[in-house]
Predict the structure.
Amino acid sequence: MSVAETTITRRVVERASRGEKTKDLLFRSVLLLCIGIAFLSLGALVFDVIRDGGSKLSLEFLTDFPSRVSPERSGIQSAIVGTLLLMALCAAFIVPVGVATAVYLEEYADRDRWWNRLIEVNIQNLAAVPSVVYGILGLAFIVRDPLALGRVLLAGALTLGLLVLPVVIIVAREAIRAVPPSIREGSMALGATQWQTIWKQVLPGALPGIATGVILALSRAIGETAPLLVIGAATFARFNPGDLTSDAFTALPLTIFRFISDSNTEFQSLGAAAILVLLALLVVMNTGAVFLRNRYEQKW
Amino acid sequence: MTQKVTEPTPENTPAAPAADAPPPAGFRVEPTAPPVTAQSTTAPHEAVFELQGVSVAYGGKPAVRDVTFPIGRNEITALIGPSGCGKSTLIRCLNRMNDLIPAASVTGRVIYHGQDLYGTDIDPVQVRKRIGMVFQKPNPFPKSIYDNIAFGPRVLGMKGDMDEIVERALKRGALWEEVKDRLKTNAFGMSGGQQQRLCIARTLAVEPDVILMDEPASALDPISTGRIEDLMLEIKKDYSIVIVTHNMQQAARISDMTAFFTVELDDQEHRSGRVVEFDKTDKVFTNPSDPRTEAYVTGKVG
């Protein structure tokens, strides 16, 4: 008997009702709409910035120092160098401090002790403190006494570091927690000390997750303007910071702020061009994070 | 200052000193140590462990109570019994793995070559150097096969050519022929049975005195299980082995001595484990002295 001859005498599986289909469609439309809002606003921003500043992008723009008078000879070299140095110093600060804190909380802290729980709650809270507050903290404790570093690159890096440290700690803790207890047991059963177990088994296993978290934290720090303004970083610098502890410095968001607030529309276009440079840096960093995660993430 | 757990290895000790011989230099003698109270008339000729009234509690609730029996050198001692009878809890006391669980507390005495492992001057890290452990689920490190083996010798600072140490351990672990051409590949690419033999080889590489195995073959197929059993019988001439197993045939096939545990309910309906019978494996399986043992080994009670 061929298939064509078969007739359905009785429907066993019911057809989907019209109402269910409509609900499903409606739900999916709402989801698409929400994604659309996010994408459209990002697209509009990028389009607007490219239209304003795209034509100003050139090698000279990247290598020249800013000028107060002539927009056509103005560049952002000091801002790029300042931002890159800030990020490097910031990473050098947050990686050891953040990872050490995460290791303590995950591997050593006894959750039954109230002070350890207090620390945990406070780290969550600190991650939500507005960045300008960290700027005030940096101004009061790092720029002025007791550290009294002055308005220098190191002070900026430490302030931004404090700002993103909670994020690094939280991400590093998750990465450390993802290393299964059986790995620790296996290591300890061979006679390794707790420190050897952490250093040679747990941290290498958690490294890709930690690295991803650090990059994401830095990509938050790179765009921060308010704390740097509060601690008194320059918005205009005709030189690169040669010395981390004595020279004034600027950074990309500060230079953008300076350009955009100029009354000359030519300078405002330069601001848009600098935004493009900052966005490009961000894309590179986030791509690096995604690459690290996909390439080295440990499947247990 | 922690005292090192020194104990005679086959290399530095004349064969099997008599039980009443004076202990070698470097030994800390328990002055108040009670005489060995083996429950069996056929006690092992030389004990590695003397368990004396050992109880383990988690958060104050006893998991296993009042365990007393010796564990003999170069023998395989099997711990059998129904789930929840505290076998795994007990075996984890023998190398102080229970220390990793803050709520666990051990009472009684675990005498290892004359030293109380829970004495105040004992460093658990030193204990674990001498007493290795293989776990239920194979737990290779996320590293190459070579580095899995080399990890232990490296952290212990063992002298000698690492390539040789790795080769020797893999040969003893009956794994060398299968992996010698891919030592640098990740251990996660091995089969489950190979991973477990790697974990055993890894333990052998640090040259322990005792190897504890907590259901080492329960996650493996019969062929892999057979290989692990052959391996255990092969290495017992150099090591003392304690194995927890749910597989009665396995205990009967490989072990010299068997301890049968059972679960008891106390007045508050709390379950805890107890040793019912400890004897030669042949006797436990063919002519047990306790009816509960007989019911269990013959499959009348699961």
Summary: Chain A has a mean pLDDT of 89.
